[in-house]
Amino acid sequence: MLDTTSARDGSGAASELVIDLGAVRRNYLSLQERLGKTECAAAVKADAYGTGADKVAPALFEAGCRTFFVATVDEAIAVRKILPDCRIAVLNGLLAGTEQVFPEHDLIPVINDLEQIARIREMCVSADRALPAMLHIDTGMNRLGLSPSDMDRVARDPDVLTGPDWLYAISHLASGDDPDNPENAAQLARFAEQRGRLKRPMQASLANSAGIFLGPDYHLDLARPGFALYGGRVEDGKPSPMEPVVRLRARILQVRTVRAGDSVGYGGTYTVTEDARIATVAVGYADGYLRCLSGKGVACIGDRRLPVVGRVSMDMLAVDVSQVDPTEVHPGGYIELLGPHYTVNDAADDAGTIGYEILTALGHRYTRRYIEAASGES
Ligand SMILES: *Cc1c(COP(=O)(O)O)cnc(C)c1O
């Protein structure tokens, strides 16, 4: 097992975020296998969903990934510094003032409107070459991409697209995690229809993580999974078919005996009914552990599940460890707040949110440790 620790402070006293790069690679390979001939790209925006793009993007590259999607130009430049030989596409588009950054760092803008089409064409004229670009067509999400009326303009004037090297037409599914939703097939059909209106044929990309599991019709030429690579589930309410990637190991600061009738934490929201042993652990909402998990979250020692009790505070939370032998819980020791026994998806259900938010909220106060666990070694 390879082990790279990147402690921010070098003290090693912080709680620890363990990221399994072996699991990231295996998740990538299993998606690529499911996709067959379709190329599998990776969404590594938001610092690879909070897992650390500087380590995760190279791991994905080693697994065979050659196309990366980020949200912002800054994220793209950061990935380019580490990976000189891959495609990097910027989903937020080609904003005015960022023109020179794209050719300078060899980045691909995802073009979202007619103004951006005009901008990339001008850039091709000044550069005297066909710069790469992707064309985002909105098919129902109504977030980014050319609207149906923009597409009317494009269809009327075929020269509108002359100049750039259009690598892909892309669109994004609004309800991919709900396979029974008829909107998925409707978006697929609208995407085919709009692509059919383009005078120059383009390769196509539609599927995010969930889209891959909707079946081969949705795969097209390129898929763009993010969440599934990091262990996220692809269908709402179903267990994840992917390997968990992240473990959050919190430091125990104190273990105290609380007498029956006494309460724990701000607001005294949790009153113990029998004498209890309560561990105070060094993770709070400032570390991205959502406060709404107060009284709902689960901590684990081995495979024993223990309740997070009372309110989560800024830097700490409390766990009732009465069931665990005192020799196993001591100040300076660790207790697991996310991992194979209580996953990002489980925490999302208890918090009333989605795993994406649980992952991306994880802060930068932790010591980050990157491991290469073999399959099943968790
Ligand atoms: C974030 C994003 C993805 C990846 O989505 P997941 O659900 O994480 O797989 C793909 N395409 C676009 C346009 C995105 O914004």
Any overview of this molecule?
This protein is of the alpha/beta class and 378 residues long. It folds into two domains: 21-230, TIM Barrel; 243-371, Lyase, Ornithine Decarboxylase, Chain A, domain 1 (Beta Barrel). It has helices at residues 21-35, 45-49, 53-62, 73-82, 101-104, 114-127, 148-156, 183-196, 209-212, 344-351, 355-361, and strands at residues 3-6, 16-20, 39-40, 42-43, 67-70, 87-90, 108-111, 132-136, 165-170, 203-205, 222-223, 246-258, 263-264, 270-271, 276-281, 298-301, 304-309, 317-320, 334-338, 367-371. Helix 5 links the parallel strand 6 and strand 7. It is elongated. The mean pLDDT is 94. Bound molecules: pyridoxal-5'-phosphate (PLP). Pyridoxal-5'-phosphate is lined by residues 43, 45, 91, 172, 208-210, 224-228.
Short structural summary:
This protein is 26% helix and 23% strand. The protein is elongated and about 80 Å long.
Number of helices: 11
Q: How would you name the CATH homologous superfamily of the largest domain?
A: Alanine racemase
Q: How many E strands?
A: 20
Task: Report the average pLDDT across residues.
Answer: 94
Question: In the CATH scheme, what's the topology name of the largest domain?
Answer: TIM Barrel
Q: Indicate the structural class.
A: alpha/beta
Bound molecules: pyridoxal-5'-phosphate
Assess the beta-strand content as a share of residues: 15-25%
The CATH class designation of the largest domain is: Alpha Beta
The rough form would be described as elongated
Radius of gyration: 24 Å
